[in-house]
Every structure is written in structure tokens, then in C-alpha cells.
Task: structure prediction
Amino acid sequence: MHDYRSMVELLKEIQALEFGVYELALFLDTHPGDRRALEDHNRLVSRLNQLRKAFEDRYGPLRLDSESPYPYRYINDPWPWEIQY
Amino acid sequence: MWFYEKKLQYPANVRRCDLAMAKFLFAQYGGPDSELSAAVRYLTQRYTMPIPQAKALLTDIGTEEMAHWEIIGTLIYKLTEDATPEQLREAGLGDHFAQHDKALYPHDAAGVPWTAAYIQATGDPITDLHENLAAEQKARTTYEHLISLTDDDGVIATLSFLREREVVHFQRFGEALMQVQEHYQHKHIFC
Result:
């Protein structure tokens, strides 16, 4: 149970960072020449990649092109609609 | 192509089983101004956009709409998870249960199945972007109606996030529309 809460907390951090990345990406779609937005985007992406790696090492793949230990761990519950956030 | 990421874009919690609210939420799951309509609309229109900014924006907003569709599906799933057939019947979801049990079939709040007639793709980028501006406003309004129909703070938090995304998408579509209009003005002058 303790580990479940830690998993959810890390997931929420990833959600927050990924939200920042997505928001900046939409902005950059219509403002590709905005250097500051691009720097913010790249900085958040770098942090997001670190967190995603930390999550996947501990709780299993978030994507099917992530490496998995044996047996294939991507399929494991909980799926996103089953999680108590 | 797409890769699935095994996470929601935003947390979705519900405090209790609320079948009436689940029924209302089908508006945004399979209704005219639903997240499903938005995703299919933008991902269909993007092929005939004339400038890179608009191709990118329709691809990325269309993809985000699929993530929102998943969030609405999650709310309905959680709100109905513990319901009995009798409770579903009392809440007006007896018709749904008869045909779909608790499956997340895409229909609107009144049970009308989703149809591609809810969306348009005219091949005219200026027309299509105007449709999208209207679509974002209609979805924002629907979220405001939905928020006023519940007192569940978990549901309200998630619906508020989705409402805010409609506002941001409206802003970005407005920028893309101006850029497409500029693109055509220059084209007419120099060609």
C-alpha cells in the first residue's frame, strides 16, 4: 500500500511535468521562433525523461517501446482508469 | 503513428458512485461536442492544412483530445463501477445496460450513438479552423453545464482541467487561423 501511494505520487509528478511539456509544445506549434518557450520546453523534457526513467525502473514500462524485465511487465495492473489518484 | 502512454493526462478521482452524473458525462464521451468528436475532427482536417504550424497544431491537439476522451471514460467507469442493474435502471441507464452492460460505448447523454455527422472537414482550412473555434467554445460550455450538475470535488477538479484546455485550444486555433489567412494573402500578392 505504501508503495502504491509512492507510485501514484511519482505518476502525478510526471503528469504535471508532461502537462508543461504539452502546453509549451502547442504554443511552439504557432510560435516556432519563440526562443524562451523552446528553452523552457527543452528543460522540462529533460527533467521529464529523468522522472519517466525513474518511474519505469521501479514500476514497469509506461510505453511498449520501453525496455521491460522478464516477464513482460507493461501489461501489469493497474491500468490508468483503475488508479486511485 | 501513435504510441500509447500508460497514464492519464490528469488525475481522475470520484468520491462516490453517481449514476446520474455518469449519464450526463456521456455528453463529452460520445456527444456532438465530445472529446471523441474533437479528436476525429482535428485528426481528419490536418491533411489539408496549408502551413506547418496548422499541420502540427491539429495533430497535437487531436492527440490531446484522445487523452481527454480517456479521462472522461475513466470518470464514467469509476462512477458506474459498483452499480447494480437495478440502480442503473433507476438512474435512466437501463437502456444502456440492456445493450452495453457497463461497457463504455460512445453515445451522448441521451443514449444517441456517436456519428461522424457531428464533425466536418471541408478541405477549406479557413472554414475548418472556424469550425474548430466554435467546437472549443461548445465543449467549454458543456463542461460548465456538467460542473454545475455535480458536487463531487474529484469530478469537478477533472472537469475544470478539461474546461481550461478548451480555452487554450481556442487560443491556439485563433493563432493558426491568422497565420493561414496571412499565408493566403501573401500567396495572392506574389503568385
Observations:
- Chain A has one domain: 2-82.
- The longest helix of chain A spans residues 2-30.
- Residues 19 and 25 of chain A are 10 Å apart (CA to CA).
